[in-house]
Amino acid sequence: MAGVEISHAGMRSLRCSIILDGFLATSKTMPNGKLQIIAFHIPGDMPDLLSLHLEVPDSDIRAISDCTLAYMANSDLYRLCNEHPRLGDVLWRDTVVEVAIAREWIVSMGQRQAVSRIAHLLCEMMTRMKIVGRVFDGTCLFDLTQKNLSDATGLSVVHVNRTLQELRARNLISFGQGMLTIHDWDRLVRLADFRSDYLHQQPPMSFGLRDPTERP
Amino acid sequence: MAGVEISHAGMRSLRCSIILDGFLATSKTMPNGKLQIIAFHIPGDMPDLLSLHLEVPDSDIRAISDCTLAYMANSDLYRLCNEHPRLGDVLWRDTVVEVAIAREWIVSMGQRQAVSRIAHLLCEMMTRMKIVGRVFDGTCLFDLTQKNLSDATGLSVVHVNRTLQELRARNLISFGQGMLTIHDWDRLVRLADFRSDYLHQQPPMSFGLRDPTERP
DNA sequence: CGAATACTTGATTACCTTCAATACGCGTGG
DNA sequence: CCACGCGTATTGAAGGTAATCAAGTATTCG
């Protein structure tokens, strides 16, 4: 259920999880009670992978939609990584991509104004959903509220609302009823200044298949 | 020399470096030419450690002061990590801390206004310098320009300037001539809402020694 | 010692926040 | 079934933080 916490700042965690379905968010709470979401987690992600190398997490992870998770003891995962160095490499690489994503968020917050900021976030989420095969016909399940986007972008809910209206008015996206669809990928990408390279997709364009959401 | 580039977005890198002295910054350049600094690197850091697991870096790394570096071939480092799993763990953990730092920057940019934002950055840098033993009497070498702070915080140079003046006027810091000194750590921490836990200092308060910049 | 870079200051503008009120959707319980 | 409540979405108006523009002053460095 939305709101359920799976990891809490300051509380040692002994297990990792993998998302089978649904969305989670990692967030920090400010002294004034406001929330800043610092990462979204989608199916296929391991939201608390970082805890494998941390005594005490510094942020909270909670479900923002109904979701189903698979769990694994940290100790088992740690042993597996030692026995199969390639697995360790893959997971380490995953951590590296998390750095890249977080840093691109910094760019968004520091340089892009509301419209591009939100557009960029939507591009990122759509691309990540695409990578795990959850996009059909330019639309994917996307169970986030405007409040969630507000907490993630640092914009007020009111402004998120107006910004989404602008994106809708320009016929770029549909957002609502738990769905996101991007009508004009190219224009949205240009507006967002979105370059997917920071996501470091594993096999870049392998098998000769081209990703229709991707431009050369 | 300041400005020298040691790694460029899109250019495959085959070696890692360790900073012996000086400051580097990782940054991305916007289409309009503006720069966003997404990480500062201080002595002891490995600024391009991420490239060990990435084919192609997505950002630039360059010196922002005179510095001296030590280099190491990626292949050698990779081999070492396999031969000594504990080394791999330490470096992986280092990557995890980079995630934590980047995410705390997100919090700063999303939630803190100029004064706290800059105060927070200064607290972070001072703490990191302290960890590597480069702080004496509350002051450390700090060769950043106001433009650098501007690029890192997403604030205009003008506003950074005014904000620093306010911090100085409140007798919290001295900044300039390549030095930073914090006069009233407690008040600055409170102003910045700085909690050092996200830096995950290795042995937290080990050996019974207390860090004077740190509060319980 | 001159030019370039960094810093400082004042005035105007703009993006976004906050406040306030209303409308909508949905699940719960009478 | 409808009333109620609560979270979410929407809209309008007013205010504030920070950006931009424009000069001018220091400082550094070759």
Give a structural overview.
2 copies of one chain form a homodimer. With 216 residues, chain A is α+β, with helices and mostly antiparallel strands. Helices cover 39% and strands 20% of the residues of chain A. Chain A contains 6 helices and 9 strands, in the order ββββββαααβααββα. Chain A has helices at 74-83, 85-111, 114-131, 146-153, 157-169, 185-192; strands at residues 5-7, 15-21, 24-29, 35-41, 60-63, 68-73, 139-141, 173-176, 179-182. In chain A, the strands form 3 sheets. Chain A has a 4-stranded antiparallel sheet with strand order 1-5-3-4. In chain A, strands 7-9-8 form a 3-stranded antiparallel sheet. The A-B interface holds A 10, 26, 28, 30-31, 34, 36, 38-39, 50, 53-56, 58-59, 82, 85, 88-89, 92-93, 95-96, 98-100, 102-107, 109-111, 153-154, 193, 197-198, 200 and B 10, 26, 28, 30-31, 34, 36, 38-39, 50, 53-56, 58-59, 82, 85, 88-89, 92-93, 95-96, 98-100, 102-107, 109-111, 153-154, 193, 197-198, 200, 204. The structure holds a DNA duplex (30 and 30 nucleotides).
